[in-house]
Amino acid sequence: MNYTLHQLQIFLKITETKSITKAAEQLHLTQPAVSIQLRNFQDQFDIPLTEVVGRQLYVTDFGYEIAKIVHKINNEVKEIQNKTLSFKGQLTGRLTLSIVSTGKYIIPYFLSDFLKINQGVKLNLDVTNKSKVLKSLRKNEVDFSMVSILPENFSIYNEELMENKLFLIANKDFNITEKMYQPEFLNKLTMIYRENGSGTRWKMERFFESYNLKITNKLELTSNEAVKQAVLAGLGVSIMPLIGLKNELLNNELKIIPLKGLPLNTNWNLIWHKQKSLSPVANAFLDFVKKNKIQIIETKFKWYEKY
Description:
two-stranded antiparallel sheet; D-Maltodextrin-Binding Protein, domain 2; single chain; 11 strands; Arc Repressor Mutant, subunit A; alpha/beta
């Protein structure tokens, strides 16, 4: 048997995409080139790696077993590349983060310059809701998580990044007639919620409880972006993080309703397990954040101070 790394990488991409067309697109190759390499790789085995039923490509059980081995080989090749860069004095390795969905408006600005400086660092970034973020942290699947509400009964370290402000938001057609509404006013409106497990929802429900509000007219959506689009469409109002509303507020597509008790304030935090042994890459990123966060906030989030 005489396979090349190129063939292994192509086969692995085919098993991931279940499509020669998609594999070719992601590898920036032509379809015929990928097909030829798959055929050359297959010729070295007596057992089929893939099969086509109708027009759909399927990976056989044997193919999946080979893919597992190829995946390990691919990781070892990357480790060779990392070691080479390391001996040249460059920081190498993988940085893995899991962040709550609204964190996507913040974390790129803390990552951008770090990754430009350290081009040997590869990033894995998972954007999901709070409960899944904490689950990945507990299972030691990530270096850091980013949340706006620190978890209880969980042994962590944290590095505060910036303030998180939540306001009552309506679309441009909402007629504001008072300088300050009382919380009971919310009973007259349709309130749009995030799903269970969301930190924004948790904070919003604690606010309702503090004023003994029983919201009856409500919708539930599964992402901050979905909530924003629903508010823009006039389906209701919501208590939302300011961080994801910059363009809509500047363009007067959304407006902040003045409500007693708002804004709700929390802080965005980078957190990691106290028992976690941080890798050189993770330590370097944490050091970068500590040294540069004030400058990043001042240059990238100046607009935030107006609200």
